[in-house]
Amino acid sequence: MLLANLEGAAVTAIRIGGVNHEFATIPGVREDVLEIMLNMKEIVLKSYTEQPQIGRLVATGAAHVTAGQFELPSEVEVVNPTQPIATLTEGAKLEMEFRIEKGVGYVPVERSSEEPAALDFLQIDAVFMPVTKVNYSVESIRGEEGEAKDRLMLEIWTNGSFNPKEALSKAADILVDLFNPLKDLNQLETAVQEYPDEENPQSQIPIEELQLSVRAYNCLKRAQINTVADLLDYSQEDLLEIKNFGQKSAEEVIEALQKRLGITLPQEKAKA
Where is this region: Alpha N-terminal domain (alpha-NTD) (predicted)? Predict the structure, then answer.
């Protein structure tokens, strides 16, 4: 929950003046476009709106460009302003726009935006996760009255957009919302699985398991009754119509079904 379900903000696409693919180079800029994109992935942002935002950068001359030089909407702030972006030489110019979105987890390029990006925007794998690492341990302790208790120890590292206490609180809120519907058990329905006779495991029991007398067993076999499922096609009256199957054998079968499987054959003859 802490690692995968907390919402964060990230750069999801960039547009650089004069660049149309990630393997290009920019005159006067030491880093190629791919390196700049990787640097943009390392930027930690905090967004106070659910709507996508656009940030901008214009840098000229000999300079080390960092995230602190971005022009951002009022709803967005940079948490790590010293994050390097690019290194410019004398006379160089870097113009860039980038898209900022909120999301959860890690979203690769092909799923990074529900809206089609402009053709000249280069998509970036987005890492929205504000929590970067979590450790936990459980240790046994004694309560005030000597009773045994367990204590949960959590270590939480974040990227700075949340502090660990905020991250834990937000994760707990998500868990509470997740399990809240279970409080009202009256709305839960009990589903009883019903099997057709041919699928019911109990009905596939061979008649040998009923431990019938030799006479009753042989009569059933001659009538092609091999499983309990076959027997369930007969009523008590039907059994008496089996050749050489008398009242005593019928009572034996009826009693075996009832005692061993809890099955009661209907009294009346099965209707066509």
Answer: 1-186
